[in-house]
Design a protein that fits this description.
Layout lengths: L4 H14 L3 H32 L2 H25 L5 H8 L1 H37 L7 H10 L1 H23 L7 H36 L7 H14 L7 H24 L7 H24 L11 H30 L1
Helix pairs in contact: 1-5, 2-5, 4-5, 7-8, 7-11, 8-9, 8-10, 9-10, 10-11
Length: about 350
């Protein structure tokens, strides 16, 4: 199919209009709609004036002849030539107006799609905000709970930073602030702080259920509610004897289990209704801190001095006790010999 000059002009104008900024494009679209309306109104008025100026009889006869011809040759005309749409006729005579009207209609559809997408995103954000809302949490519990996770978060961030310092010192000879040995020494000092604080928090979370049972919140449940307060410290404190990675993983699992137990307690009325979401937020912060610590320590496994296992620590303790006993026996024998 051969491209007419009007088609080329219209395509060029489409590209030109799309390249304009947003504000000029909207004004051109409004102008196009106005011009197309004026064009159609002017054509209608011209047709009415032509009919009114002609003789009525001649007009009637001409109209009758046209009707007869149309009835006789309608099928043939439909086969020989395709129908011309009004938009095509307008494009042939007014390419600028056609391009503007076409862009105006497409822009309106895109604007409607953008509005629908924005409305959907706003509704989803509102649902998420309502789901994770802490509006029902008492302010004292919220502030103290958030303050309680700060030491855990701080030790985690320090672990990540010191791991970076150790890797930098191993690669470049010196860290950003500390030397490699200083960073490694500080890392070994932080490890028991983070694990010990985690054990304290786990014990506290278990003790909450003892307080709920004593207060009779939601009824009396006896050993079933006391069990959480017993299991939590029983699992938490032995982690102090584990290697750091195993201790962190064990505490992560313990925090997750306690959150599941607290969420069920809030859902069944054994705890306040806000306690489940409150515990979720705090557990999320603690869990993210543990994961960050594990990732940071994973980056220095080949650099940091390998720590002793539990077996090595027990053997070292037995050796020290045996050595102290031998020294005590030697002092006793020397005292006996001196007295004789």
């Amino acid at each position: 199919m051969q491209t007419t000059p009007h088609h080329s002009v219209t395509s060029f104008l489409d590209i030109l209009i799309c390249s304009l900024p947003e504000s000029p494009r909207r004004r051109l679209c409004q102008l196009a709609v106005y011009l197309s309306t004026m064009y159609r109104n002017a054509a209608a008025r011209s047709a009415l004036r032509a009919f009114s100026s002609s003789n009525a009889s001649v007009a009637r006869s001409a109209l009758g002849n046209q009707i007869c011809k149309a009835q006789m040759t309608s099928s043939a005309r439909n086969l020989l030539r395709p129908s011309v749409s009004p938009s095509f006729a307008l494009a042939a005579h007014k390419p600028v107006t056609t391009a503007l009207v076409r862009y105006s209609s497409s822009t309106a559809k895109h604007d409607e799609d953008d509005i629908d997408i924005m409305a959907g995103m706003k509704s989803e954000a509102k649902v998420i905000k309502e789901t994770f809302s802490l509006a029902g949490v008492p302010k004292e519990a919220l502030y103290l709970g958030m303050a309680g996770v700060v030491p855990y978060l701080a030790t985690s961030l320090q672990t990540v930073f010191l791991s970076y310092e150790i890797n930098r010192a191993a690669a470049l000879g010196d860290g950003l602030i500390f030397s490699g040995q200083s960073a490694e020494l500080m890392l070994h000092m932080i490890e028991p702080v983070q694990i010990g604080y985690g054990a304290v928090i786990l014990s506290f979370l278990g003790a909450v259920h003892w307080g709920l049972e004593w207060a009779g919140y939601g009824g009396k449940f006896g050993y079933r509610r006391y069990a959480a307060g017993v299991i939590a410290p029983a699992v938490a404190w032995p982690t102090l004897l584990f290697p750091v990675e195993y201790a962190l993983i064990s505490q992560f699992l313990a925090f997750t289990f306690l959150y599941y137990n607290d969420a069920r307690a809030a859902a069944t009325g054994r705890a306040p209704h806000w306690y489940g979401m409150y515990r979720f937020v705090l557990t999320f912060v603690v869990g993210a801190s543990i994961v960050a610590t594990l990732i940071g320590r994973g980056q220095i496994q080949q650099t940091i001095t390998s720590e002793h296992s539990i077996k090595d620590k027990i053997n070292a303790l037995i050796f020290l006790q045996k050595k102290e006993k031998e020294e005590a026996d030697a002092r006793r024998r020397s005292e006996i010999e001196e007295s004789e």
